[in-house]
Amino acid sequence: MTVVMEKPEQTEPVAKAAPVVGTRRISRSMVVGAILLGWLLLFAVLRGKQTLTLAAADLTDLHRWFNDVNDSIGANRNSNPLFLYFFNEIRLVIDNLVTFVQGLISQPTGDRPLPQIGWLGVVGIAGYVAWAVGNWRVALLAVAGFTFFGLQGLWQESMDTLALTLSAVFVALLFAIPLGVWAGLSDRFNRVMTPFLDFMQTMPTFVYLAPLTLFFLIGGASATIATVIYAAPPAIRITAHAIRSVPETTVEAADSLGATRWQGLLKVLLPMSKRTVVMGVNQSIMAALAMVTIAALIDAPGLGKTVVQALQSLDVGTAFNAGLSIVVMAIVLDRVTTAASGRAEAARNSKNRFLAWRRPLLGAGAVVTLVLVYLSNTYLWAAEFPGDGGVGSSIASAADSSTTWVQDNLSGLTNAVRDAITNGLLNPFQTLLTDSPWWLVGAVLIGLGVVLGGWRAGVTTAVCVGLLVGTGVWSDAMTTMASTLVATVIVMLFGMAFGVWMGRSALVDRLLRPTLDAAQVMPPFVYLVPFLALFGATRFTAIVAAVVYAAPVAIKIIADGVRNVPATTVEAATSAGCNTWQIITKVQLPMARSALTLATNQGLIYVLSMVVVGGLVGAGALGYDVVAGFSQGQLYGKGLAAGLAIVLLGVMFDRITQAAARRVGA
Q: What are the C-alpha distances in Å from 120 to residues 303, 329, 369, 386?
């Protein structure tokens, strides 16, 4: 009897548990695999049908409509009230600001054949400002960096770039700091601003250019306005974070002492968040410099124009020389603003006996700087940089010689790497995307969006797919998507290899992190130059440049994720007999899944922004369409549609990966 009674008690729980076990076997990875397998099977049957292919010179009705709108705006620019009293006025104000700053440091003004402040005065101001906000080491770096521009023979180009950057940052901060403070004080306003900031930071730099030229024409004003829009979001976001990071107890103490809201802001919140706000200024300056160089595509003066012209003519030496100036300027501006953010704390911790003399020394330095400015305004030798830029010629010649040597001696290796990745990975994947029916690719993307990111991500993907079809550049968008996804896979392989290494070793982190930080400072243009020398003008060049551009951010995110895995968990795995490989693959990487997903998100966005810039060196697809739209009037509408397609790809990638990161972290 006892045996009969026990059997139901043993079998009943098993019968109830069976469906649960069966349900767990259907994981997200299995659903993704089923979607991809179904895609391959249907591709084999439907290959080459309904692909929406469009030749390079062909236009759709949408493209022609964009062209008509552009022509209509051009014809009515000086009679339409919206342009007369709004867009033209904005353009005039920005243009006057840029012209004023250029007249000070880079361009002749009035009857003067040279700017108001010559090279000696600019170098003196740069050194003094760096010393005043930072320290003497940063001042020496600034003086050396600015002198180097002249030795390269690129003084005026460098000053034009600096003038546009400073003008854009000045205007951006006029709006960004107040908006950031407001977002920090108001939860409601912060919720309203966040989607706009996300969208603006998702858009690649290319995308800002075409629509702005529609309203503000090609030139420095459009470039500055585009730079303002691109540089403002980091300052807004970081300022809001700084205000919110002030301890509530400090704010409550100020309130209890009778401080008004305005006094609390000026006397408590802003002083205590000053360091973080300055870091926001740093990020805005870096974003502005990156945008100013790319804005050369719409005739912005400066180093960017030199790089663009050299890339288009495949002149590696000239491109390398100008690219080196951009790197030096980025490093100087970054070091100065970074030193400014930490100067007060460094001064408190320092025991230097000369600190007591800092104010008198700064006063004396100001006098010396004014003397240098006067000399540069008065005397030709102090106004015009001496020499003929022989250093720049030597650098360009060395770069050309190195390029020739690489092409003669390493072409076998570089071509083998290029062909292996191109033929083994890129071409098959691109064929799968471009030769599949558009509705099949759209269905796959929507399905992946739902599985990985949830139904909201699926809806966003469906909208983006529909709009991509409407742009008329579906095939080019798929080509760009193929390059972007292949490059992202390579980025994640590097990210996991070096990120795990850094996360597990403090020594490796200390050695690699400064290099990664420096790599993130450089504008995207600069990455194209060395790989143009290695691989020639091909789409593979854009992919490699994109990998190098995006890898640092992915590596750092993964390293931080691995480092945040609890040490007790790792110790428990070690005590259980796990070897190093097992700890990495079974413990640290699974527990850092949210960091991996975030790294994928950032890697995709960085890669997309770089792949489209690669249109300058043979990458084709959407990047080429945008560049061709600037240079060929009949293709303006297609270029504008291609810019919209880039935005749609960025939004789609961003929404899916962000939603996936939230689901993994939940």
A: 20, 17, 9, 10
CA-CA-CA-CA torsion for 631, 633, 635, 641, nearest 10 degrees?
90
The tokens describing 170, both together, are: 């000045």
Q: Give the C-alpha separation, 621 to 171, whole Å.
A: 34
d(CA 144, CA 141): 5
Rounded CA gap, 375 and 120, in Å? 8
Residue owning tokens 């993704």: 32
Q: What is the pLDDT of residue 417?
A: 86
Q: What share of the chain is helix, strand, coil (3-state, %, to 5)?
A: 85, 0, 15
- Cα–Cα distance measured from residue 172 to residue 281, given in angstroms and rounded to the nearest whole number: 10
Distance of alpha carbon 609 from alpha carbon 449, whole angstroms: 21
Q: How far apart are CA 43 and CA 571, in angstroms?
A: 48
Name which of 101, 532, 171, 154 is nearest 326 in CA terms: 154
C-alpha dihedral over 425, 426, 428, 429, to 10 degrees?
A: 100
Torsion of CA 374, 376, 378, 380, to 10 degrees: 170
In the Cβ-directed half-sphere of 503, how many Cα atoms lie within 13 Å?
29
Contact criterion met (CB below 8 Å) for 537 and 626: no
Residue 266 is given by DSSP the state I
Residue 516: strand, helix, or coil: helix
**What span, in angstroms and rounded, lies between the C-alpha atoms of 366 and 125?**
9
Contact 529, 587 (CB under 8 A): no
Residues 427 and 419: their CA atoms lie apart, in Å, by 10
Q: Which residues contact 566 (CB under 8 A, 6 or more apart)?
A: none
Alpha-carbon distance of 236 to 28, in angstroms, equals 37
- Find out whether 230 and 291 touch, Cβ atoms under 8 Å: yes
Contact yes or no for 626/210 (Cβ under 8 A): yes
Please tell me the distance from the alpha carbon of residue 205 to that of residue 608, in angstroms, as a whole number: 10
Q: What is the DSSP string of 170-238?
A: HHHHHHHHHHHHHHHH-HHHHHHHHHHHHHHHHS-HHHHHHHHHHHH-SSHHHHHHHHHHHHHHHHHHH
- Structure-token pair, residue 468: 């991509």
pTM of the model: 0.80
Structural element, H or E, at residue 504: helix 474-504
Residue matched to tokens 């070897």:
579
- pLDDT mean by block of 10 residues, the chain; 666 residues: 42 45 64 92 92 86 91 83 85 90 88 89 94 88 94 92 93 91 88 82 73 80 87 88 80 75 77 82 86 83 87 83 89 86 58 66 90 92 86 90 84 85 90 94 94 90 94 93 92 92 89 82 76 80 88 90 88 87 89 85 84 73 84 85 89 85 67
One-letter amino acid at 610 equals M
Q: Please say whether the beta carbons of 300 and 223 come within 8 A.
A: yes
